[in-house]
Amino acid sequence: MRQPSGKIIKGSQDCKIINLDSQGRMINDELYLIIRADVCSSKGGVYRVLIYRSKSSGRDWSSCNCKGFFFTEMCKHIYAVEDRAHNTKSIDYDSL
Question: What are the residue ranges of helices labelled H in the chain?
Answer without folding.
Answer: 6-12, 67-72, 76-80
